[in-house]
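Hi, can you check this record?
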Amino acid sequence: MANNPYDQYTMNKIMTATPAELTLMLYEGAIKFCNIAIMAIEDHNVEKAHFNILKVQRIIDEFRRTLDFKYDVAQHFENVYSYLAQRLVEANMSKDKAILEEVATHLRSMRDTWKEVMRLANKKG
């Protein structure tokens, strides 16, 4: 990895990101992997679809692990993440791109909301 300038840039970006930026990167990654899985299903590439759905599941699992339940909103996020995790299992079992498109829509909405939260926080600070 150290010899590839793109990999070096990516690693540096991750290592210097704020927690808010890391969360945004995770949303972006989940959307990207969801889109790759959709394309793989369209191409009848079951293995690639499976592999990328698992990546989305791991990101959702990470979001769930980092919820802080001292805040009331955490339970709402847990409910959403739990729903998305279940839908990903269903999508992976059936290789149903419509389910993945639904998950991607939710992820994009959450990402866009997160971007707005970051923007508002930067305005205050």
Observations:
- Residues 25 and 97 are 23 Å apart (CA to CA).
- Residues 18-124 form a domain with the Four Helix Bundle (Hemerythrin (Met), subunit A) fold (CATH 1.20.120.340).
- The helical segments are 5-15, 19-42, 46-65, 73-94, 97-124.
- The chain has a mean pLDDT of 93.
